[in-house]
């Protein structure tokens, strides 16, 4: 059976530089002491940047040359990539465009500013000129090896990296979590479970890992046109809230219902690195996994800002080497 020719595919990267004095000034009026101390809501680590955006964009240009355009979504900020890209990729033909929150929140500007990814992700599909098929990255997602379109899209289907999990079991695990800063921690899984519940799933949800997501603009647009109340509720929180849901989870569940999903286990393709309090041998073990397992294509480096200076240096030097770039 012949495969449908791949149409235009864009990449979208959500980025914020929490070190920027203007960002700190903008967020300050909305911060309570409790919120500011809570890493799961608006602690400094949620916004700090250690230059991950340079490696993320480099990896797309280096290993996914079929990408038509890279959109960087941010809030009145600019990572200033031009000189870096000119130095390292003088022949690059993939344009990079900065998209401000005001653009994707057009007609809903009263909810700005927002300081949480769940609100931003709810509006990503509203980028003007965005291709029907696109890949969504966080700025700490990095490609480590060459990828093909078929790593994300195959004919009219998407490749979903993840696994099904029990809503009931994971909610029980949440209930026994200790309180922190006066509230139950708002975790990554919680947004997926909330999305599954909004979608109508009572028992199972599809657990998404920290991996680039293949999305279709028309599917998300159609869902929110039919459920405008959910769209409004999700963009109306300044900071991450337990009432919010993960838009990508809603999308995946919609695609499953249409029978347009091919599932693959994340662990076979993703190298997740979180170098915080892991011991001396942690990084060596992780980097050795990259060397020995040639199937690993995707990397996510979590909380790099909380790593020791030595571990940061090791990781950034490793990334620079595999991406063949100089900062």
Polypeptide structure, described:
- The chain has a domain at 9-146 and 211-243 and 270-323.
- 36% of the residues lie in helices and 18% in strands.
- The protein is an alpha/beta fold.
- The chain is globular, with a radius of gyration of 19 Å.
- It has helices at 21-27, 33-37, 52-63, 82-88, 101-104, 117-123, 167-175, 188-199, 217-226, 228-235, 247-257, 282-292, 309-323; strands spanning 9-14, 70-74, 96-100, 133-138, 141-143, 153-154, 157-166, 204-208, 213-216, 261-264, 270-273, 298-301.
The end-to-end span amounts to 45 Å
If helices are DSSP runs of H or I spanning 4 or more residues, what is the number of helices? Answer: 13
Q: What strand order characterises the main sheet?
A: 3-2-1-4-9
Note the overall shape. Answer: globular
Q: Assign the structural class, choosing from mainly alpha, mainly beta, alpha/beta, alpha+beta, or little secondary structure.
A: alpha/beta
User: Which percent band covers the strand fraction?
Assistant: 15-25%
Characterize the largest beta sheet: strand count, sense, and whether it forms a barrel.
5 strands, mixed
- How confident is the prediction overall: mean pLDDT? 91
Helical coverage, percent range: 25-40%
Briefly summarize what is shown.
The chain has 327 residues and is α/β, with parallel strands linked by helices. The chain has 13 helices and twelve strands. It is globular, with a radius of gyration of 19 Å.
Task: List the keywords.
327 residues, alpha/beta, 5-stranded mixed beta sheet, 13 helices, 18% strand, globular
């Amino acid at each position: 059976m012949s495969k449908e020719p791949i149409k235009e595919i864009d990449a979208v990267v959500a980025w914020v530089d929490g070190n920027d004095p203007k960002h700190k000034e903008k967020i300050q009026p909305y911060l309570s002491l409790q919120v500011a101390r809570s890493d799961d809501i608006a602690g400094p680590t949620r916004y700090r940047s250690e230059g991950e955006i340079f490696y993320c964009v480099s990896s797309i240009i280096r290993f996914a040359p079929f990408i038509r355009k890279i959109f960087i979504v941010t809030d009145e900020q600019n990572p200033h990539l031009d000189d870096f890209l000119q130095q390292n990729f003088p022949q690059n033909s993939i344009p990079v465009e900065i998209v401000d929150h005001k653009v994707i929140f057009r007609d809903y500007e009263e909810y700005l500013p927002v300081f949480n990814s769940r609100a931003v992700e709810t509006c990503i599909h509203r980028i003007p000129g965005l291709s029907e098929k696109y890949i969504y990255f966080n700025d700490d997602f990095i490609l480590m090896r060459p990828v093909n379109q078929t790593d994300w899209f195959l004919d009219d289907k998407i490749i979903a990296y993840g696994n099904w999990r029990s809503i009931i079991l994971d909610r029980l695990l949440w209930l026994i979590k200790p309180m922190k800063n006066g509230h139950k921690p708002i975790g990554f899984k919680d947004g997926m479970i909330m999305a599954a519940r909004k979608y109508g799933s009572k028992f199972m949800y599809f657990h998404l890992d920290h991996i680039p997501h293949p999305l279709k603009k028309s599917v998300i647009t159609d869902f929110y046109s039919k459920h405008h109340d959910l769209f409004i509720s999700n963009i109306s929180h300044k900071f991450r809230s337990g009432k919010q849901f993960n838009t990508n989870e809603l999308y995946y569940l919609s695609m499953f219902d249409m029978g347009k999903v091919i599932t693959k286990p994340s662990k076979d393709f993703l190298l997740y690195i979180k170098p915080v309090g892991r011991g001396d041998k942690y990084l060596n073990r992780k980097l050795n996994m990259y060397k020995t397992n040639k199937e690993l294509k995707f990397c996510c480096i979590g909380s790099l800002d909380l790593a020791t200076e030595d571990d940061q240096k090791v990781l950034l030097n490793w990334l620079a080497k595999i991406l063949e770039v100089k900062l």
